[in-house]
Amino acid sequence: MAGNNALLFDTDVAFASLSAATGLASTMLLFLVCFFASVPITMLMAYVPGTRTRQLYSFLTGFVLLYTAFGEGVKHIYMPAMLSYAFMALAPTHCGLLTWATVFPYLISVHAQNASGDTWKEGGMDFTGAAMVATLKVISCAVNYQDGRSIKEAQMTPSQKRLHITKLPDPLEYASYLVGCGSLLVGPTFEVRDWLAFCSKQDVWKDKSVTSKARIPGALCFGQSLVWLVLHLYLDTLCPLTTVDKPFYASLNYPSKIAVMVACCFVSRCKYYFSWKLSESALIFCGFGYAGEGKWDRISNCHPISVELCTSGAKFPDHWNIQTSLWLRYYVYERLVKPGTKPGFWQVLMTQLVSAIWHGLYPGYLFFFSSSSLFFEAAKVLFRWEKAYRTRSPAVANAIVALNTVLTVVNLNYSALPFLLVDWAPGIHVWSSVSYIPHMEMLAICILGAVVKPPKAPSAKKSA
Question: Is residue 429 among the annotated active site residues?
Answer without folding.
Answer: no
